[in-house]
Amino acid sequence: MSRVTCDKTGRKTVAVSALAFDSKCESILMVRKRPDKNPEGQCGGWGIPTGGVEATETAVRTLVRETESESGYPVQRVVGLLAEEPKGLLHTLLFYLIEVEDFPQAIKERDEIIEARFIPLSEVLRMPYADRKTPQGVYLSVVNRIQDALGTLASVEPEELEDGSEDAAFKPWLRENQELLRAVVGELTRKGLLVPASA
Fold it and tell me: Are 70 and 62 in contact (CB under 8 A)?
């Protein structure tokens, strides 16, 4: 499932999405949706692992299940929650930063996913937006989430995150990866692929 939808009873629903960088913070894990058999009727295109939280699962369990079944990459660690995006009154999308193992297994959701791979951020940000005529494009909502995450992760100082807070989980990841990420963000900004956060 790649978008938040209300269930048949009209209860609030939650979906989760995963952002995973490669070891150099230059590429992100992307999945390519099938245009012909997409269960939600959405056009085909490139996105990030996403799925609906089932009543019997936690959001994190769904995140791991959907990432592994859509991409084939085993989840090594859920770093933390990047954003909570309300989608109307009854829907919420939870956007997480994760780490995955280097070697993928088989994609289980072949009815929805054509392929999964790490794609350089510079390539993702140059892709046309996905629509019915451009199934090789990237979903605009995914580009927006990626840009917001890059800006946040590159600008926050690990020392600013309070111990004991939900955001404290990001400290080790930021200490290990922020220098690489800032260099990538700087290069993407120089190429005109990212707008500086202050603009």
Answer: no
Average pLDDT of the chain, as a whole number: 88
* Residue 184 phi, psi (nearest 5): -65, -45
Q: What is the pTM of this model?
A: 0.87
CA–CA gap between residue 38 and residue 141 (Å, rounded):
17
Q: Is 13-139 in CATH node 3.40.30.10?
A: no
Asked if 6 and 90 touch (Cβ cutoff 8 Å), the reply is: yes
Report d(CA 128, CA 178) in Å as an integer. Answer: 28
Helices (H), 83-156: 121-124, 140-155
Over residues 138-176, the pLDDT tens digits come to 999 999 999 999 999 999 999 888 888 888 889 999 999
How far apart CA 59 and CA 94 sit, in angstroms, is: 8
Residue type, 102: D
Q: Cα 144 to chain center, whole Å?
A: 10
Specify the DSSP element, H or E, that contains 184.
Answer: helix 170-190
Q: Where are the alpha helices (DSSP H) in 17-169?
A: 59-71, 121-124, 140-155
The pLDDT tens digits for 1-41 are 333 444 445 567 899 999 999 999 999 999 999 887 555 55
How far apart, in whole angstroms, are the C-alpha atoms of residue 61 and residue 56? 10
The residue written with tokens 């990432």 in the block is 67
